[in-house]
Design brief:
about 210 residues, five-stranded mixed sheet, two-stranded antiparallel ribbon, 7 strands, GTP Cyclohydrolase I, Chain A, domain 1, 2 domains, single chain, GTP Cyclohydrolase I, domain 2, alpha+beta, elongated
Length: about 210
């Protein structure tokens, strides 16, 4: 195992243990169960508030993620000016409108200008923004802006495809409807051929989103 991998594991544990008021969440879940007409003291629900409270430090760890620790000195000076793509990055997030999950894949590309980023860092950047109360449009832009500000590359492209439980379980109840958002910066916005190369790469062999 590489030193960066060990540091990443330590950083992730630190994020999960960061301050989030699980006692307040537990009390809120008990109140919700009562509002649903349930009995929080029955056997199946007795530990539900504690279990629910325990998952939120992980689900919302992106708020407390430290970008410097995520990058962790994994910037490398490299003479390379062709496209770098990390595709099919699985993510899970919570819609800020209904607090129901949305999940899918992110595809990220950039064209370096003298510096490249360690491979494992791009999925971690995606997670940093996904593990918050989010809307997909904002998350897409945040990922692109972060990489653009960090690397100052020739361009950045991000495409996010997701299934939203808030439209699958309620409302229109369209099970197979997916949402696709994109942000194109720099050369990906100004040069059609570059943008098309990226889109062609991420469409090749892509399978359907599944839950």
């Amino acid at each position: 195992m590489q030193k960066h991998d060990l540091d990443d594991d330590a950083n992730e544990q630190e994020f999960l243990e960061s301050d989030i008021d699980t006692d307040a969440i537990e009390t809120a879940i008990q109140t919700m169960l009562l509002a649903f007409g349930e009995d929080p003291q029955r056997e199946g629900l007795l530990n539900t508030p504690k279990r629910v409270a325990g998952i939120y430090p992980e689900l919302l760890s992106g708020y407390r993620a430290d970008p410097k620790k995520i990058v962790n000195d994994a910037l490398f000076n490299v003479t390379y000016d062709d496209m770098v793509i990390v595709r099919d990055i699985e993510f899970y997030s919570l819609c800020e409108h209904h607090m129901l999950p949305f999940m899918g894949r992110a595809h990220v590309a950039y064209i370096p200008r003298g510096q490249v980023l360690g491979l494992s860092k791009i999925p971690r950047i995606v997670d940093m923004y996904a593990r918050r109360l989010q809307v997909q449009e904002r998350m897409t832009r945040q990922i692109a802006d972060f990489i653009n500000n960090l690397l100052k590359p020739q361009g950045v492209a991000v495409v996010v495809e997701a299934l939203h439980l808030c439209s699958m379980m309620r409302g229109v109840r369209k099970h197979d409807a997916r949402m696709t958002t994109s942000t194109m910066l720099g050369i990906f916005r100004t040069k059609i051929a570059t943008r098309e190369e990226f889109l062609d790469n991420i469409s090749r062999g892509a399978g359907p989103l599944k839950i």
